[in-house]
Amino acid sequence: MPVLVREGLFIGNINDAAEVISNGSSEITHVLSLLSSPFITFFSDWRRGFEIQTKEIEKVYKGEKRDPGNGSGNSNEEVPSHRGKLLYNLELVGADLKILRMAVPLRDMENENLLDYLDICLDFIERGRREGAILVHCFAGISRSASVVTAYLMKTERLSQEDALESLRQCSNCVCPNDGFLEQLKMFEEMGFKVDHASPLYKKFHLKILDFATFLVKLLPKLLVKILRLVSGTK
Predict the structure, then answer these.
(1) Inside any domain, residue 201
(2) Quick one: pLDDT at residue 71?
(3) 68 and 163 belong to one structural domain
(4) How many Å apart are CA 135 and CA 151, to the nearest integer?
(5) CB count, 10 Å around CB of 159?
(6) What is the CA radius of gyration of the chain?
(7) pTM recorded for the entire structure
(8) Which domain, by its residues, includes 219?
(9) What is the pLDDT of residue 63?
(10) Could you give the residue numbers annotated as active site?
């Protein structure tokens, strides 16, 4: 069952989330899902025959200016035709469509960029606590959800990474963020409990995790254009 971390803030695993979503909860009004897939079909793929009623509110992609913390999302807003990486999916779920779920595509891998998702996650946690109570979950309730909740405690209570994680472990002793997430949480602390993309720390981190294959995919077309221009004699 979900574990209470602070008033209005719970942590759990996919079983806890499935129970809350399918049967409702007298306390939990919001769910933050941190899974490899942001789509609700992840639940039915995980448990055969498991069906959840949903109503999509919006999908937000990298570069779009939306705020999951203020409740003003509008799925009818015009969005760019060329979208980047999906940041989150916002939807109403459950039998009565009373639970607001934000799903963030986050893998439990050491080279996964947790920092780029922290702002939207922490804003949504704050919104969930303000409007009711929120369950933060991943698949096992050990690494991804623990990392985000730890970051939330760090920011709101001005705790070091070590102190925030220790405080969380007093509530749930199974939490254990992977080493890559721990490193990023330490950077989050050193950046003043915020994600500063202009910080040398962030830039160094981003270069470290940059996938070389993705880099080549982006670079090669530009190189080919330059080569073709040189061959043709155009500028």
Answers:
(1) no
(2) 55
(3) yes
(4) 15
(5) 18
(6) 20
(7) 0.83
(8) 206-235
(9) 74
(10) 138
233 and 169 co-located in one domain: no
109 with 217, same domain?
no
Q: Please check whether residue 46 is in contact with residue 172, taking contact to mean a CB–CB distance below 8 angstroms.
A: no
| 133-192 pLDDT per residue, tens | 999 999 999 999 999 999 999 999 999 999 999 999 999 999 999 999 999 999 999 999
Express the helix, strand and coil content of the chain in percent, nearest 5 each. 45, 15, 40
What does the buried/exposed string (b/e) look like for 30-41 if buried means 16 or more CB atoms within 10 Å of the residue's CB? bbbbbbebbbbe
Give the pair of three-digit tokens for residue 24. 């409702």
Same domain, 92 and 131: yes
Task: Quote the Cα angle for 127-129-133, to 5°.
Answer: 120
β partners of residue 54: 93
Report the distance separating Cα 113 and Cα 106, nearest Å.
8
pLDDT, averaged across the chain: 88
Strands (E), 62-218: 86-93, 99-105, 134-137
